[in-house]
Design goal:
By secondary structure, this protein is mostly helical. The longest helix has 29 residues. The C terminus is likely disordered. Helix 1 packs antiparallel against helix 2, helix 6 packs across helix 8 and helix 7 packs across helix 10. The chain contains 10 helices and no strands. The relative contact order is 0.13.
Amino acid sequence: MTIDRDAPDHAGGRAGGRTMNDSGETAPDGARLRLTFEAFCSTHEPAWTAFARTQVGAHGDAAAQVVRRTRDHLRRNWPLALRQEVPAAYAWRLLKEHLATWLAAQSEPAVLQTAAMDAVIGRFCHRAGLRPQTLSEQLGLLGAILDLPERQRDTVVLAYCLGLDDDEAAEYLGIPAAALRSHRRQARRRIARAVGRPDFAKPGPAVPASEVPAPEAPGPAAPGPAASASEEAL
């Protein structure tokens, strides 16, 4: 689906309705839109921020900047977002668009993405039940993750870096949970082939949330969602 960047803020709604940018006590529709927008962002911003950190790094304000631009874009098109079958998937596409724009503006985007994923590879391995035995295997694993097709890469990052359950991750990607699990299985097989470890194709035993390494503290930015208590169900 192509995101309508230029949809006016008053798109949708009943005739004569107010938009979220209207002000004053005589704008009940605008007030409701503002409330639903703030509630939506409060629910989803932690995941947006956590995902952005896996793409642009946890230090500095890059992730916060991308999320802020996503939020502003979403606010301008909130009535349109509410008309989508899955508003969370629409917002996720905006986030991916702004991440791509930010990375394209950098001098070495591939280096930034590699460093960002390297910073969370420990959590990824714990949640995925992967146990690389050597530095070479860990570097191969990192490269294999970065080389995955975008949908498969997002699927494993949402599961193993952010700890989202299948329903939450599927909502962001706008696909059924069964399709998400299929993408994840395919991703694990590709990773296993790339690093020469057939055992990587199958999930290991569940790792207690208390044993998952905590992310580096990047400052006051909102933390990502807590780790899921159980491993994926294939």
